[in-house]
Amino acid sequence: MSQEKDSKLREEIQSMLDSHKEFKGYGLEVDVHGGKVQLSGIVDALADGNRAVQAITDMDGVKAVENGTTVCTDGAITDSGVAMEVSEELQADPQVNIRHVGVKAAKGRAYLLGHVDSPEEEHAAINAAAKARGVKEVISELNVRPGGFDTDDLGAIFHHQVNNDREGEGETNLY
Description:
175 residues, 3-stranded mixed β-sheet, Histidine-containing Protein, Chain: A
């Protein structure tokens, strides 16, 4: 791709970012080489950077997008604060069964733990976690188990029943 085409594509993308209601407040910038776009700037949440990447990817002439955005919050946020923010986002998503999904956070990484009933539920949990303040990366350690447990494994059935009994007593378990 010529420098002229790259320059024109950069102007189109930059114009879109600068005028888009969701991105204009961030002051994001792009550079284009051979149709490959480098996005840079600071966003409030991982999901914001991901949405910008998707908007750029959908534009004509874009071959690839590298997300070089940095997630930065208005103030310091601890790992426990990140975990709390992720938990709130998971609870707010009706596609995620919060009784079986938990989170641990370390250095801006949100680790999703537990199990889900479908790949769609896992995807919803990942997207919800990415919306949380302070999350720089979401790592899914979720097990996809339709129905919640393996019906061919007597041990799993037993543990599932024990967990159900405990849930009735007010205990919260991830598995």
